[in-house]
Design a protein that fits this description.
two-stranded antiparallel sheet
Amino acid sequence: MHIIKSVGVLSVAKIMGAMYCALGLLFMPIFLVMALAGMMAGNRQGAIGAAGGVAIAVLFPIVYGVLGFIAGAIAALLYNLFAKVVGGIELQLQAPAGASGMVLPPSVS
């Protein structure tokens, strides 16, 4: 049994930021469709709404990625704090079939 006693705050934050940015890119077409609907309204407010929708669609992945980075950093800090008090997450690891039990040191480049 292996126990994760702490996690790297910056590494968790970077991964969460990247994942949330990717999710923001998935949601971007929704905002673009809303901008297109605003543009098709045909009046002056429709054009302003379309410009706002495009701006939101472009900024959404960036903002969502930054918020994911911040949330990931906070979650990692909290995990490290609670792991000290109640223990870490226990993992049971199994070597892939056919792998030898020998562990090789990392290569030096």
